[in-house]
Amino acid sequence: MKENKKRFFVIKFCVGKEICMLRFTILIFVGLVSSMVTNAQVKPAGVKTRETETKIVKKANQRPAEIPKSVVEPFEKATVAEMAAQCVKFETDSGAIEMEMYPESAPESVRGFLNLAGSGALDTTTFSRVVPNFIIQGGDLFTNQKMTAELDKRARRLLPDEPNQIEHERGIVSMARADEPNSASTHFFILLSEARTLDGKFAAFGRVIKGIETVEAINKMPVEGEKPTKPVKINRAVVAPCERKIS
Questions:
Q1: Among candidates 198, 200, 219, which has minimal Cα distance to 208?
Q2: pLDDT digits (tens, 9 = 90+) for 126-137
Q3: Taking 80 as the threshold, does the pLDDT of residue 158 lie above it?
Q4: Structurally, how many domains does the chain consist of?
Q5: I need a surface site. Which of 50, 96, 184, 226 has the fewest CB within 10 A?
Q6: Cα(112)–Cα(128) distance, integer angstroms
Q7: Residue 226: inside a domain, yes or no?
Q8: Containing H/E element for 143?
Q9: What would the mean pLDDT of 147-158 be, rounded to a whole number?
Q10: Measured CA distances, 37 to 11, 28, 40, 69 (Å)
Q11: Closest CA to 172 of 125, 115, 225, 106
């Protein structure tokens, strides 16, 4: 009986010798293809594939990485005579202020001030401190509307004390500092009245030659304590050779 069933199965599966051989051939071919696909999917360790061997080719017109721009210090190597020939002009919300420099008395203070003005670091900063009938104070780089990491670094650079024989009187420009020695940085003040107690302690380095009325206008702005409610902005600081006086 079992033999008959076996024969029946063979007969049912293979009707005719040619058809039977064709079906077995197809089954063998399918088995070989399946084995090849399986082997291709398993990648032996240590064997590089075409994908890993492909090198990354940079585009010829690829945009280069941006390099942070450093603040240019135009007067870093200037001589005393070269610095003395320069004047600084502030174009403020309240008008213009023009100042002459005294590098023979405070060379590093003048150098720092010229570098700040000449590099654009003072542009958009404000006069952040006002003492009525006494001073206006500027140079706080943290009031700059375009603050950068480079300006932040520049704001923390300290200058040596340079007390000198210049008397602190109306129109004098001098470096502000803390009580600690050598703590001046970028802050400066312009006097509206005499302050002889500052002589020999603070580095006076310049004088207002035009625009003292602008200094007075800034000094009259409303304040809360010593902080202006609407600080006056230095729109632009310009360094240029001083105009020679014709006698």
A1: 219
A2: 999 999 999 999
A3: yes
A4: 1
A5: 50
A6: 19
A7: yes
A8: none
A9: 95
A10: 33, 15, 5, 56
A11: 106
